[in-house]
Design goal:
Chains A, B: GO terms for molecular function: hydrolase activity. Chains A, B: This is Fumarylacetoacetate hydrolase family protein. Two copies of one chain form a homodimer. By secondary structure, chain A is α+β, with helices and mostly antiparallel strands. Chain A has two domains: 66 residues, no CATH class; 245 residues, Fumarylacetoacetase-like, C-terminal domain (Fumarylacetoacetate hydrolase, domain 2, Alpha-Beta Complex). Chain A contains seven helices and 21 strands. In chain A, strands 1, 2, 3, 4, 5 and 14 form a six-stranded antiparallel beta sheet that branches. A six-stranded mixed beta sheet of chain A has the order 7-6-19-10-11-13, covered by helices on one side. In chain A, helix 3 crosses helix 7. The longest helix of chain A is centred in the N-terminal third of the chain and has 16 residues. Chain A starts with a strand and ends with a strand. At the A-B interface, strand 7 and helix 5 of A face strand 7 and helix 5 of B.
Chain lengths: 328, 328
């Protein structure tokens, strides 16, 4: 099934079930009002939502209405955890090569992950509000999953069973703040502002063959200012699958229901696929020409991130955002 | 007023109001069931809880019962944000001096903060469950605040107005995992397992003169295996006050209600105050004798963290935990 959260002025919005073709939606009223509730009590609530989903797909849901992604908050407008990996090692290799630094051997066996802020996610069509253009605004197109409870010391295989939903993310990064921040040694903080997620989060059965071994074998498209810049394969080159990423968290703690885990920038060795973040394009330019040519995003720039199924239809809806100045 | 969360088998527990002397408590039923609800709608709910608090203090609350810290979850059993500072630069100076490294000048003007996991906090009397003693188990006694909504670009002074509640934290750290983790460049992750908080979170008016300039001017006591090891002043040497820490987060994003912000290990220049984490004791030993002598915690070790008012009474209740092996 496909789930979304509609804006209603509240902090957590209203849970809606969305038809497979994303044409119609239906409030989940009577089952659950918020997605977190469903994740907290999945085995009881998911079958009820699935029933509603089937009725909706059959055109028989009485109070269905046209689905409008612009009315969506992030599927989880706020979450108890947002842990983002950097699971496409090719991305790390490129960025490091551009600054003449080696990739440590452990990076191929031990996932890179950082803890992100999760109190204030932005909706798929909301502006990306940034205080200063000089921060070096970049998009990062990613795949993300929402988990069930997964206990401490779970294996990667056990962790795979703890994946409830899949969605897309725009993990906005402020590139010019990163060097100073990483030099301080405590990791990303100010350089990672609010993250946006796709209109719709979907269960694994919706993905069919495309979900294999904890990876999404589909093409992630990124369109910057109307120009298609990325057609990256999200599956085969993901060095660590989502079960491995979740198990990495579980080494020292429990992962609780509603945790969001990200893949990191989707990246392919074959540069003809384009890029899922500008930093990577700039790394390639630096490797080729000694310096980056492509500038980061400006206020007014747009970014669209989407995945299409074999039928050409959007699977998760599209993230479609504009960069805007903070006027506060 | 003083607020706590009682275990009831649910993920978020039941909100209780606790009397000033921590002797009695009363369910907040009819006002709010969870602390996050109160933080989401503070101006409406806090006055109602304050009324109940006064009735309770006057011994007139009809359904009052004896308060038992062992029944407590963390005041927020899970939160949308846990951002921990390292605001006592003396701690950083000691740790760096022990490894012959300088403290960069910017550390005195730009706070160090990391994003922590917030999906699975532990109660004040719950065991600290660790998978392996060899991880180098350490306690970290800290002061923490819970915030209201604070908008992007808020000043430190504005951010001070966004502090709703104060509590204590045991930011458990796995010291032997830290070097490799920091070397990866993405900051703390596996080295920071679940954090514990004091039984009670209190509003600023409860602290009287002890709350000044965004700092808690009280003595934080740490007792390890029954031996008092720390009597550290939490106020005067806090290099960055809580308004500055919150404003640091707000540089690039909004901080939303219910965010928890920590001080980092409380640390004093005068070593006679003792220590609020073992790593600091080991740093001092290394500076003095070339190598650390004190070992990290073992399974079965206990840690008690508390603050007493001028009247000798506990202000936040005590964190009182045992280190236990993960049996999963």
């Amino acid at each position: 099934m496909k789930l979304a959260t509609y804006k209603d002025g509240s902090r957590d919005g209203q849970l809606v079930v969305v038809s497979r073709d994303l044409s119609t939606a239906h409030y989940a009223t009577g089952i659950a009002s918020k997605l977190q509730q469903v994740l907290d009590d999945w085995n009881f609530m998911a079958p009820q939502l699935q029933d509603l989903y089937e009725t909706l797909n059959n055109g028989k849901a009485r109070h269905a209405f046209p689905f409008d992604p612009a009315q969506c908050m992030a599927p989880l407008p706020r979450a108890y955890q947002w842990a983002d990996g950097s699971a496409f090692i090719n991305h790390v290799e490129l960025v490091r090569k551009a600054r003449n630094s080696e990739v440590p051997q452990t990076f191929y066996t031990d996932p890179l992950m950082y803890q992100g802020g999760s109190d204030d996610f932005i909706g798929p069509c909301d502006d990306v509000v940034v205080a200063d253009e000089a921060f070096g605004i970049d998009f990062e197109a990613e795949v993300a999953v929402i988990t069930a409870d997964v206990p401490m010391r779970a294996s990667p295989e056990q962790a795979l069973d703890g994946i409830r939903l899949v969605m897309l993310a725009n993990d906005v990064s402020l590139r010019n703040l990163i060097p100073d921040e990483l030099a301080k040694g405590f990791g990303f903080f100010q350089s990672k502002p609010a993250t946006a997620f796709s209109p719709v989060a979907v269960t694994l059965d919706e993905l069919g063959d495309a979900w294999q071994g904890g990876r999404l074998h589909m093409t992630l498209q990124s369109t910057w200012n109307g120009r298609k810049v990325g057609m990256c394969e999200a599956g085969p080159e993901m060095t660590f699958h989502f079960g491995q990423l979740i198990a990495h968290i579980c080494k020292t703690r429990n992962v609780r229901a509603g945790s969001i885990v990200g893949s990191g920038t989707v990246s392919n060795k074959d540069w003809s696929h384009g890029y899922s973040c500008i930093a990577e394009k700039r790394a390639i330019e630096t490797i080729e020409d000694g310096k980056p040519k492509t500038a980061f995003m400006k206020f007014g720039d747009t970014i669209r991130i989407e995945v299409k199924g074999k039928d050409g239809q959007l699977v998760f809806g599209a993230i479609e955002q504009k960069i805007a100045a903070c006027t506060a």
